[in-house]
Amino acid sequence: MTDKKHGITRRGAIQMLGAGALLAPNLLGKPAFAQTPPEAPAGRIIVGQTQESTVLNPLLPHIEVDDAVIFSLFDALFRVTPGGEIMPNLASEVPTQENGGISADGLQWRIKLRDDVTWHDGEPFTAEDVKFTLELIVNPDFRAWRTIGHNLVKDIEVVSPTEITWTMEKPFAPYINFLTETFIIPAHAFEGVEDPNTAPFNSAPIGTGAFKFGQRVPGDHVQLVANPGYHAEGPYVEELIYKYIPDTTVLYTQFKSGEFDLTGNQYISPDNYAEAKDLADREVVLVPVNSVESIYLNQEKPQFKDPAVRKALYAAIDKVSIIDALYYGLPLPSETFMPQASYFYNPDLPTQEFDLAAANKMLDDAGWVRGADGIREKDGVRLSFTNSTTAGNHLREQVQQFLQQTFKEIGVEMEISNLPAAVIWGEFWGMSQFDSVIVGITFLIGADPDVTNRFHSAAIAAQGGRGSNNSQYKNARVDELLEEGSATFDPEKRRAIYQEIQAIIREDLPFLPLFQNRSVRGWKSGIEGVEFNTNTRTESWHAAAWYWDK
Amino acid sequence: MPAFLLSRLWQSLVLLVIVSIIGFTVLNLIPGGPLAQFALDPGMTQEDLDRIARQMGLDRPLPVQYLDWAGKLLTGDWGNSFRDGAPVLQVIGRHLWATFLLMGSSTALSIAIGTWIGIRGATHRYSVFDYTATVGAMIALSIPTFWFGLVGIYIFSLELGWLPAGNMYTIGDGSALNYLHHLILPSVVLSLVNVAIWSRYMRSATLDVINQDFVKTARAKGLTERRVLMKHVVGNALLPMITLAGMQLPGILGGALVTETVFTWPGMGRLFLDSLGYSDYPVIMGLLMFSAILVILGNLLADIVVALVDPRIRLG
Asked: What is the C-alpha radius of gyration for chain B, rounded to an integer number of angstroms?
């Protein structure tokens, strides 16, 4: 079968073995006679996604499905690999303290750029474009989305068309990772443009990426076409389409019927995995995503101030049943905010065990006594709280009912009070007005382990801080480590720091970690080169490598 | 006639202002707003969100925002979508024709079939045909459209493979035939319910007319049954249908949310729901004004047509 498909006979194969010495290095770890991409871009790949790509300027606020298009149209200075390694993209090398790209104090940055890159309209890419991009992000009149890190950059200087330098206000190691998601846009497209928020560029983007912008049919799809002059690998398909399919059920139906070729965000819903993995002519895989599902406990609520309560609640969660019975066994149990594939993941954290007796004992020992109604009390505080999540999220609603029962057995009352998405993720969440919340959070930006925004005591918005420390968690040692971690450039030293942070947070339990999600992704058999990268938000982070095996 | 039109136009304007004020207020009362979708973004701080809201002018008092919006509307500027920055009228226009294609074809189909079933049911009252049509209409009316849609996709797309499982056309193939191929299933599914409605209305309208004296007179004159039916019965029975059709106009152009979702049809219904989901205020307001205008126009048009067709009615 295989032989026939590739037009290779047994005899031919034996003859080819003569050239084995040359071929061998490429064959390691791959099936014999691995596919090679076509010489010239050929064919079309349609990606189906349940939200519509609408934002084409990578510096404007955008969501996952926009990233799918943006990663194909544009390049950043660096690229992050699935393993979390930083590779040069528009830059010609990754600056480190060793190679002098970053000064010893971490303040002076020097970036060398490729000299062989052109914009889709033929203009050469230069350091001026990088300067323009970094300055536009912090332009007070521009609706830039993420500004963390960029607001530390000053004195940007173009040394030559292929070299740029700047100074940081303070050493900030995560910035190199942020730069993997900071796509460079062409300065010349904004010449004479009065308001960058409404520039023509925003609907007719010009990038350096593997694909050029074709057209956008609102409500339906975005069409990209191959950029044959791409400076790096690929592209191998002539046309890349991002098709909007406004419902997960319909997305799966059309995946089966073959209406599109590869599933994009939100992918295949977990309940369809069992059927999907056996579909003929379809490849379906489970891919861990960086989002971690957890129960956030508001540390300022008297119920949660006692560590014994948090530990007892954690012990009263039957994670295995939740994952197997409610989530079709797909997610991976987790003890930390750090994705398990990360270089910074701490594998030595204690594993949670579902043990109601132990939970009861912890509360007894801590002096929480059952009242007449069976609910525990201590110093006038009743162990009763509300739990909230997005109304209409059926799986989470089932988790809540399940928790309600097991918590009751340890004398804890949990009331369910769910709110519509727009309400719960507004002030209720941002200003920590909740008791407890079930939430899926991506803690990392790119592959960087910095979580200052989530766990530093100065990041509590409800207490006037700047950030998203919504559980109002405070730990002086964690603060100290976070500050040290973001100013440290050496990966090994950083690993030790962030592993300690994970250990402390696992002990303190400002949130009860449930699991790391896995998404079900599929594509038509015959598409090669598909690789997923959980350090990005999109399956299309490297669509340049996709091709049809014909 | 001009006096009548003028007073109707005046009423309509007042109505539009009221509708817009209520719409704008209710829309802004919904918590969340256009930036809520970024609340869980790891790289965005509350500061970023506040800054963007300020840049978008969303931090101003509501009356100021309304007057700003209404003032621009008077100059023909309907604003720009928060999502892709495109002018609102352009956004609506692009979705309008998709909806028009789907709803137009399905409405034409359902009126033609529904009218025929209704007339035949009335002339052959209590026949097998009449009973079948009645029961069929009840079934069609009581089963939700999305179920019909999914069953249709299951049978004709997944099992038989005759028809596409959705979308308006195959990407890369913009031929009329391709559109038609994609139009069949959603159009028929949508028609099912409308045929039921039209046939019921038409049946009772025909019955109202069929026993009237002028029909007996027509028969007594010795006209053929066919001529009696076509000229005297149907002609008169269609009059109330014109009003009904006029009232359907906003529905036709407003889109069919459920059908558009099941068949991934990029029409007005989807646009409305998506815009709501993203709190895309300018587009929602645009759609609101657009449908208000359609309702007013539809009713006006029906009144005028009825007056033209029915000599008993004089406008003014």
From this structure: 24
